[in-house]
Specification:
The complex is a heterodimer of chains A (about 160) and B (about 350). Chain A is built from 6 helices and 7 strands. In chain A, strands 1, 2, 5 and 7 form a 4-stranded mixed beta sheet that branches. Chain A has a 3-stranded antiparallel beta sheet with strand order 3-4-6. In chain A, strand 1 and strand 2 form a beta hairpin. In chain A, about 15% of the residues are buried. Chain A has a domain of about 110 residues: Alpha-Beta Plaits. Chain A is α+β, with helices and mostly antiparallel strands and about 160 residues long. The longest helix of chain A has 14 residues. By secondary structure, chain B is mainly α. Chain B has one domain. Chain B has 13 helices and 2 strands. Chain B has a two-stranded antiparallel sheet with strand order 1-2. In chain B, strand 1 and strand 2 form a beta hairpin. In chain B, helix 2 crosses helix 10, helix 5 packs parallel to helix 13 and helix 8 runs antiparallel to helix 10. Chain B is globular and about 60 Å long. Classes of the chains: A alpha+beta (about 160), B mainly alpha (about 350). At the A-B interface, helix 2 of A face helix 1 of B.
Chain lengths: ~160, ~350
């Protein structure tokens, strides 16, 4: 028989066996904790500002003379969740092509960032938006009106891409 | 005013005070537990989140009331009523202040039922009836987890009632009365029982934790093993009543502890320093404030201990009850008896 006699429980001192001093120690600890600074972030008032590396909602870069996108359709091809739909059209500007329709279904998007990675024009990038809300399936399909974001607000991400992509 | 009407008015006031205290305790419990875990706690509903219990009750009222299939409906309905009724009726023997001297020379006692010569016995008896609510809830739900919770709670309450009673006996020997007002009167001038009965106080405290089913003795509702324990199958305000009963029990247990060991509404020296005559309104208000202050100490302790200590295992619980607290209580009685006999 494998019997151990000198177990840890038997080696407890008298005061430890009495439990009361140990309980008092525990109570002192929780009492001290009451006055320590809190870790909770009060969300709607205190928002977390992500870094450039954060992959939030994918958006289209809007420059002064219109969007960068040339409607090549690579993002739509690479998207593993089939969330992106692009329809190309012709334009008088130098880039010759532009997206007539550019839609991302945010219920399908998995925030993988492959569209951004594959884009030859750096036209679609991941933003910092993480609170994406909609009330119906129709509302979840974001068109150009919601996707186009001025380039000034995406500087940090573009900087990050230039450095690490 | 006839004594009956007067008692009914006092009873109504006591009832409302108890419910408000229970609501305040729910709020405090959540707030203090949050602070002890580096959190903030409920702070959205009303100023500092003070209206949180109101929102909770509103939510419970609007919830669907589900009675499980094959449950024993009358008993299922009766159980929460017993729990809350017992928890609230104990209040009538508690004296939060002494008396008010009326113009015609009669004394208006503040307690709902003042000078009951079996006051403490009444408390011990009623607090053990509380176990019926829990056992019935467990049995009538037709659910094995509920039943186990109910069984545990009955075994636990019976074991700890003994220790509690023995501790109280020693305190009563020192005070010389079972009447709550007399017990407080005998402790006047700072001769509180806790100075003479430190061991008795400790036993009473531990037994009170077990009686009110609070951590570390909350085995009847041990979430990890029994889902919710005896109230697993309760929803809506029926569950709310159990919840309320737990906090009302905490309040009454603290009030009895204050009466027995902490001198009730007695505060040495200060009333005479402030020149407060016995029987005047300022004196009564002062006593009420002292009582509230003293009761809040064990109440905070209840919450504090719950968020510090882990739950006991069932055999440990029984060991502590029968093999530690009971002999200690008996020894305490013998020693107290000897001292009372030889010194007086």
């Amino acid at each position: 028989m494998n019997v151990t006699t000198n177990t840890r429980a038997q080696r407890m001192t008298f005061w430890e066996k009495l439990y009361l001093p140990e309980i008092a120690k525990g109570l002192a600890l929780t009492f001290k904790t009451m006055f320590k600074p809190k870790l909770t972030r009060q969300y709607p008032e205190e928002r977390w500002e992500p870094l450039g590396s954060y992959r939030g909602r994918p958006v289209l870069v809007l420059e002064e003379d219109g969007e960068r996108c040339v409607a090549c359709g690579l993002c739509s091809r690479v998207c593993p969740a089939l969330a992106i739909e692009v329809q190309a059209g012709e334009t008088e500007r130098d880039k010759e092509r532009y997206p007539v329709k550019f839609e991302i279904n945010m219920l399908r998007c998995i925030y993988c960032g492959l569209c951004e990675e594959v884009c030859p024009e750096e036209a679609i990038v991941m933003s910092k938006d993480y609170d994406i809300v909609f009330h119906s399936q129709e509302e979840a399909i974001f068109g150009k009106d919601k996707l186009l974001v001025p380039i000034a607000r995406l500087q940090e991400r573009l900087e990050y891409l230039r450095q690490y992509k | 005013m006839s004594p009956l009407v007067l008692t009914l008015i006092k009873g109504a006031i006591a009832l409302n005070v108890a419910l408000v205290v229970a609501a305040a305790l729910v709020y405090l419990e959540r707030r203090i537990s949050a602070w002890m875990q580096y959190r903030i706690g409920p702070n959205r509903v009303g100023p500092f989140g003070l209206l949180q219990p109101l929102a909770d009750v509103l939510k419970l009222y609007t919830k669907e009331d589900i009675v499980p299939y094959n449950a024993s409906t009358p008993f299922h309905r009766l159980a929460p009523i017993i729990s809350i009724a017992v928890a609230l009726s104990v209040l009538c023997v508690i004296a939060p202040a002494s008396y008010l001297l009326l113009d015609d020379g009669t004394k208006l006692f503040i307690a709902v039922a003042p000078n009951v010569n079996v006051g403490l016995l009444f408390y011990l008896a009623l607090s053990s009836i509380g176990v019926y609510g829990i056992v019935l809830a467990g049995w009538s739900s037709n659910n094995k987890y509920s039943l186990l919770g109910g069984l545990r709670s009955s075994a636990q309450m019976i074991s700890y009632e003994l220790a509690m009673g023995l501790a109280a006996v020693a305190a009563v020997m020192v005070s010389g009365s079972l009447d709550m007002n007399q017990i407080i009167a005998s402790q006047s001038g700072g001769r509180w029982n806790i100075w003479f009965q430190p061991l008795g106080f400790l036993i009473f405290l531990v037994a009170s934790f077990a009686e009110t089913n609070r951590a570390p003795f909350d085995l009847p509702e041990a979430e990890p093993e029994l889902v919710g324990g005896y109230h697993t199958e309760y929803s809506g305000m029926k569950f709310g009543l159990f919840y309320l009963a737990e906090y009302a029990n905490m309040f009454t247990a603290s009030a009895v502890m204050t009466t027995l060991y902490l001198g009730g509404y007695d505060m040495p020296f200060l009333p005479t320093l402030l020149g407060l005559q016995e029987g005047t309104l300022p004196r009564v208000l002062f006593e009420l404030a002292v009582f509230v202050g003293k009761v809040s100490v064990p109440l905070f302790l209840f919450i504090w201990v719950r968020w510090t200590l882990p739950r006991f295992r069932y055999d440990q619980l029984m060991n502590l009850g029968w093999r530690v607290l009971l002999p200690l209580g008996l020894a305490n009685i013998v020693i107290t008896g000897a001292i009372v006999f030889f010194v007086r």
